[in-house]
Amino acid sequence: MNIGNYTLSVELLTGMQVTFPQSLIYSLSILKGDSLVGNDFGLYGSVKKFRTFRATFALSELSKKIKFRKKDGLLLQAPNFATARDAVFQKIGKSGSTFLGVAQTNSTSAKEFGWLFYKMGSDFGKMFTVTHIGTSYPIDYIRGGNKLKKLKGKIKAYRSKYNNSAWEQGVLLRFNIISSQKGITPPGFGDLAIDVPFVFAGRQMQGQTLFDAARWLDSTMTYWDTLGVDNPVAFANLEDFITNILKPINNGFHEDIPPLNYRIDTIGVMQGKNPYAMELLGIKTAAEIGIVKQKSNTIDFNDEDNYEIPIFNTLAQNYPNPFNPSTAISFQISAISNVTLKIYNVLGQEVATLLNKEEIEEGQHEIEFDASRLSSSVYFYRISVAQDGIARYNETKKLLLMK
Hints:
Layout: E1 4-9, E2 16-20, E3 25-30, E4 42-45, E5 49-50, E6 67-68, E7 75-77, H1 81-92, E8 97-100, H2 107-110, E9 114-118, H3 121-125, E10 141-142, E11 149-150, E12 153-155, H4 165-181, E13 193-194, E14 199-200, E15 203-204, H5 210-222, H6 232-252, E16 262-264, H7 266-270, E17 278-280, E18 284-285, H8 286-289, E19 292-293, E20 314-315, E21 326-333, E22 337-344, E23 350-360, E24 363-370, E25 377-387, E26 390-401
Parallel strand pairs: 9-12
Antiparallel strand pairs: 1-3, 2-4, 5-18, 6-7, 8-9, 10-11, 13-19, 14-15, 16-17, 20-21, 21-24, 22-23, 22-25, 25-26
Helix pairs in contact: 4-5, 4-6
């Protein structure tokens, strides 16, 4: 460096903050033989840019397979959004993926709970043929007509059959996270943390990563009954979460795909014969969106153990059974509840009251039933659980007294 006076500065990019010097400038005078040290800049933050898909008809179109002319490598057909969509599904594999809710691993629970699942990008795209403007509901019932039909099992949902804003944005959130994990969009999207206060289904979402927020949404959508997402107040809370949190995030990092905003793996297309070998480039930082911030953490959606399985209201079979003269009746409560537990004979007449609208703490409980004064016969025990004045659970089981 020549002798003289110099000004050394750095440009503070979006998403970065300075610790020193506050002016971002060092004014230096260099003399012969000088060796200057310590003129450092303290910067933190990240300028990492992210990319998302938003709910758009473009996701439902036929994908354009990328094509090059062999003799000179000229691009004959450029990708569209559906190409990127199918690139994600190619990475997912032929087994498909759950996109909303908690997949059930045994046949019994699959008959009770529902979740949204897609194997193919074309099926996934049918969820976005028209914007969803319907009320947000969990995966609970098919609405319409005079009777509600309960949803259960693996559901391949299309917009032509369902109009549910929560489904639309929830499916899209997971798709955006998976796309980031699979390298079709920039990595780390699921690690962004919600940076505004919002309580959803009883949980404060500020500080939750998008991955964790998606997990909690999955739990509430499948286990809606247990978590109390079954009334107008809860539905309104779900609607607000979708409208004010998820939709702005899904939309915030979206942009059309002019040539400068995507990258094609030419070798992968031409030599690997993969017409979906592409990636979308990042277009905005978390700081530019404002509703989220970066947070260092990496979790994979393949880790199914991360789902929060809520405690259910259940009534176990008494033990021993048959019994003489006493037996234990066990039950589980999902939250503080008013519990009634009564015994009836075969005629439906009440013969004993073990609990009568008593307030019981969340968790596992056991009550002993002494039938010394009763004669040998078949009896029935029935539990009724109410939370906040609303009936949540009723169950009846049979017991046999043999003296």
